[in-house]
Design brief:
mainly alpha
Length: about 375
């Protein structure tokens, strides 16, 4: 497996865009009353932000790990992913989930041994398997995106290891293997109802990232006129779908009705990929023309994006908004302004420095000075 790490500024742009979309989604949801049907119109912000992350994760992970052929390569791949994801993920779970739970029990004088279902739920969270067993073990699926990415990373060596080394059949092999895995998971889910449908919604977005890293589909230059047409078409379809069918945006977690799943695939996934193509092309065309301050800001946010996702609930979203509304008698508009202009910058700075501290403390493979790492959820972060 090669030691060098490739870096593309376009992926930084996609990653920074993804995390900012997620942050504004949380802020908007906090601004609108939970029962308000207008809440549905903000759903696309978070949905597209997640699609961007899945795409970048597939693209970045394949860009640097195409040559997985032996067990040693697989072991190296998983060691890198483990060091990158788990320490910060466990820290987030401790601070946001475990800490408040233990504190509330201690404050109420009810420190008791956890029940077997609670232990099972905790075990799935520790290994990052909450998305895999989300419909079997009851409990809120927190940080499901991390769990979904971990599942995809487990599948990635299988896809790559058995992909044809013949460039002519390479993409066909990726599609055949990934579709076979998808069919197996669909069958398991149909029989046992174990995996949330969100995982299946984004599965092929991740696979598209892998394919895009091996082809010129996203790298080939697209003229300004075509970019405008694609962007306009995507915007029209997205708005029309949300206005006409906003009450059907949320999928049933047990794949019922099937028409909602198909609608999401045909509308959301297609429009997401088209819009990703537009952003990718715009980044490729104008990144170097942007000022140094803009490029630095993009890299700064992209680098901080994994931690921002992990700790965003502390700074943004409905819970902080409700706290300010109830305890400080603040109206929603000042709360939103505070979150955008104060809480969001603090979250970015906090996440950047926490990620930098983690990179200094956690042993990782040495990277040549001339290269930058594209990591995961940011490995894709």
């Amino acid at each position: 497996m090669p030691d060098s790490v490739h870096w593309l500024p376009e992926l930084d742009v996609l990653r920074a865009t993804a995390i900012l979309f997620l942050q504004f989604y949380l802020i908007c949801v906090g601004f609108v009353a939970p029962a308000d049907t207008f809440n549905y119109y903000f759903y696309w912000l978070g949905q597209f932000g997640l699609a961007l992350f899945f795409f970048v994760s597939g693209y970045a992970i394949d860009l640097n790990n195409k040559e997985i052929r032996t067990r040693g390569d697989v072991g190296t791949f998983f060691r890198k992913r483990t060091r990158r994801i788990y320490p910060l993920y466990w820290l987030a779970l401790s601070v946001i989930v475990l800490g408040p739970h233990v504190y509330s029990m201690a404050a109420g004088g009810q420190l008791v041994l956890p029940s077997p279902p609670t232990v099972a739920l905790a075990a799935t969270y520790i290994v990052g398997a909450q998305e895999l067993f989300s419909l079997v073990i009851p409990g809120y699926v927190y940080l499901w995106f991390v769990s979904a990415i971990l599942m995809l990373y487990v599948m990635y060596p299988i896809i790559v290891r058995y992909t044809s080394e013949n460039p002519t059949h390479e993409i066909e092999s990726v599609l055949v293997i990934s579709t076979t895995i998808f069919a197996i998971l669909i069958a398991l889910n149909y029989v046992f109802s174990i995996i949330e449908s969100r995982f299946f919604l984004y599965y092929f977005v991740f696979i598209t990232g892998i394919i895009a890293s091996r082809t010129n589909v996203f790298s080939a230059k697209v003229g300004p006129r075509r970019l405008f047409i694609i962007a306009s078409f995507t915007f029209f379809i997205t708005v029309a779908y949300q206005v006409l069918f906003n009450s059907r945006l949320y999928l049933d977690m047990r794949f019922d009705p099937l028409i909602d799943i198909l609608a999401h695939y045909l509308v959301f996934v297609t429009t997401d990929l088209l819009l990703i193509l537009v952003i990718f092309q715009l980044a490729r065309r104008y990144y170097n023309a942007a000022g140094g301050g803009i490029r630095s800001a993009i890299s700064y946010i992209a680098y901080a994006s994994f931690c921002m996702y992990l700790f965003q609930g502390i700074f943004l979203g409905p819970t902080p908004a409700t706290f300010f509304e109830q305890h400080l008698n603040a109206t929603r508009l000042p709360i939103v302004a505070f979150q955008i202009f104060v809480a969001l910058p603090i979250l970015i700075i906090f996440s950047f420095n926490l990620q930098r501290l983690a990179d200094k403390v956690i042993p990782r493979s040495k990277i040549k000075q001339a290269t930058k790492e594209i990591s995961q959820i940011p490995d894709g972060q």
